[in-house]
Write a structure and sequence with these properties.
- This protein has 569 residues and is an alpha/beta fold.
- It folds into 2 domains: 197 residues, no CATH class; 327 residues, Alkaline Phosphatase, subunit A (3-Layer(aba) Sandwich), CATH 3.40.720.
- 40% of the residues lie in helices and 12% in strands.
- It is built from 19 helices and 14 strands.
- The chain has an 8-stranded mixed sheet with strand order 7-6-8-3-9-12-4-13, with helices on both faces. A two-stranded parallel ribbon has the order 1-5. Strands 2-14 form a two-stranded antiparallel sheet.
- A hairpin with a 5-residue loop joins strand 10 and strand 11.
């Protein structure tokens, strides 16, 4: 009988073959074990990616070279074991490579910013990062950042993704992951016990060190931010000062008050010549009859921390521990029937202007003021009369409060914060990689931003003087925080308040009162000038503004009103 080949339909059908995932070997005995990837990634992160931590430990006062080396070894082991424990939870077939890549990228960015600017990564810094806009992000980009990310994250990730990972059954892999987690935890306890005295002393006396542990600091900070809604209902804003009413000075007034609040950005009190700085950074303000407080302190060391705090009635001590969100200063002023307007040349008002009329300069295209993708601060004076005229007439008749939120001296691209006509100090640092700049050039660029702020404030006073025929004008300038310019290898701002240097917390507070406003408020500039060194802070701001505007409400505390000290009974 002749042999016939079976038809294709008669052939037995093999079960579908499961294709291996990318980078995963089809041979169970081939490829790299997940454990080795976890170990190698943990060691890379704990050593190379934590250069900022090792530098900080080497420079800690009171530690010998041997002590610093011992603590460094102990912390490297702690970081490696903690990282391995976290990675072991996610060392599965489909998740291991993406998770390790995420750790590497996070560690690379963290390492760059901590090394380049001396910052630490805590929950407040994470809030700043999440609220950063395109303009601020653009100012931070440079080739050094790209090179750091390439070396610390891209190249290791490229190597990782080219490796075949050994395939392991789910039960067996769960056993391996559990054993890795237990071993990491046990060794971590042993290391902590062996080096307890040394580690506890450093963490207690130098709390900033804990925020340099990379990338665990970023994950902790992100977790703390994510947990905020569970600690405090962020979706609800409770009313405040709804009993606010205009005081006795409003009766029969012919000139309503016009108060301009200039919210400064990144301004060091010590770099203002009117506060004793040896360089002539404030020549125009020096010609005005002002009071410049020399002992004013901020609520925080970042915009995200300071601005909501200074516009609240809590003060620094109570703001972070509050159990609910409340309305703020602008809401109380609006409850009193006043016209309120917020003008923003920054990355937003951090929630304090959400319930009042507000304008952003992002979409403005004023020639000469909005070139290069962002606007200079003077743009907020452009068309200001028309903006005020658009506010409700019945509110304007009682009084107007304007807020101008500056770009000010925001870094690291300080050279962008002043137009060519105001670059009094040269040469300037024109890089956002601040450590690569000469100290003098860096300070020059920053001081030029103060020269421009001086011009803005003088121009604002000039505009206010032009309103005297129909209003009683005044101006209050107060910065949100200061700045580090390389002192002790620190740059920018955002350090935890308890360990932040004074230059990040000491801020300028400048008051200008027109004769009509002095007569109305019974507060004199001459009296204020006699109290320039009195200690004040952002805690005083809420109550001082209410006092200046003669707004009566149960939330006003006269003891915190710095102007009440000079008001005639």
């Amino acid at each position: 009988m002749p042999l016939h080949s079976p038809s294709p339909a008669a052939l037995p059908v093999a079960p579908d073959r499961v294709l291996p995932s990318p980078g995963v070997s089809d041979n169970p005995a081939a490829g790299v074990r997940q454990l080795w990837i976890v170990v190698l990634a943990s060691l890379w992160i704990a050593t190379v990616c934590n250069v900022a931590l090792w530098r900080a430990l080497a420079n800690l006062p009171g530690l010998s070279t041997g002590q610093a080396a011992t603590i460094s070894v102990a912390l490297a082991l702690v970081i490696a074991l903690a990282t391995a424990g976290l990675l072991s939870l996610l060392a599965w077939r489909w998740t291991l490579k993406p998770v390790v890549t995420l750790f590497l990228v996070s560690a690379a960015f963290g390492a760059y910013f901590m090394m380049a600017y001396g910052v630490v990564i805590d929950p407040n810094m994470m809030v700043n990062t999440l609220q950063t806009d395109v303009r601020e992000t653009r100012d931070l980009l440079n080739w050094t950042l790209a090179g750091t990310v390439m070396v610390l994250a891209v190249l290791p990730s490229f190597f990782l993704w080219r490796q075949q990972v050994r395939r392991t059954g789910m039960a067996r892999q769960a056993l391996f992951n559990g054993l890795t987690l237990l071993a990491s935890g046990a060794l971590l306890v042993v290391v902590a016990l062996v080096f307890f005295q040394s580690l506890a002393s450093v963490m207690r006396n130098h709390t900033q060190v804990r925020y340099l542990i990379n990338p665990l600091n970023s994950f902790y900070a992100l977790g703390a931010v994510a947990a905020k809604p569970f600690q405090r209902d962020e979706s609800t804003v409770l009313p405040l000062g709804q009993d606010a009413v205009p005081g006795a000075r409003y009766a029969g007034q012919t000139k309503p008050p016009l108060l301009l609040l200039v919210l400064g950005e990144t301004a060091r009190s010590g770099n203002f010549a009117i506060n004793g700085y040896t360089r002539p950074t404030t020549p125009q303000l020096a010609q005005e009859n002002i009071a410049s407080q020399r002992n004013a302190w901020s609520c925080g060391t970042s915009t995200a921390a300071s601005v909501p705090c200074m516009f609240s009635n809590f003060g620094r001590a109570g703001f972070e521990s509050r159990t609910a969100n409340y309305e703020g200063l602008l809401d109380v002023l609006q409850h009193a029937g006043l016209a309120v307007l917020w003008l923003d040349n920054q990355a937003g008002c951090k929630g304090v202007c959400d319930r009042v009329p507000n304008v952003s300069t992002l979409q403005l295209k004023v020639p000469g003021l909005c070139d290069g993708g962002e606007c200079m601060d003077e743009v907020m004076l452009h068309g200001l009369d028309e903006r005020i005229a658009a506010l409700p007439a019945e509110r304007r008749a009682k009084g107007v409060v304007l807020v101008m939120h500056q770009m000010g001296g925001h870094g690291p691209a300080y050279y962008k914060r002043s137009p060519p006509a105001f670059k009094k100090f040269l040469p300037e640092c024109t890089s956002n990689s601040l450590q690569s700049c000469e100290r003098e050039a860096l300070v020059n660029a920053y001081d030029n931003s103060i020269v421009y702020t001086d011009h803005l404030l003088a121009s604002a006073i000039g505009w206010l003087k032009a309103q005297e025929a129909r209003s009683a004008p005044a101006m209050l300038y107060l910065a949100d925080h200061g700045e580090s310019l390389g002192e002790n290898n620190l740059y920018l701002h955002g350090m935890p308040y308890g360990v932040a240097p004074d230059v990040q917390k000491r801020v300028p507070w400048i008051t200008w009162l027109s004769p009509a406003f002095e007569q109305r408020s019974q507060v004199t500039t001459a009296c204020l000038q006699q109290q320039l060194d009195a200690p004040i802070s952002h805690d005083n701001y809420f109550h001082s503004v209410l006092g200046l505007m003669n707004v009566q409400t149960s939330v006003y505390q006269p003891a915190l009103d710095i102007y009440a000290r000079c008001a005639k009974p």
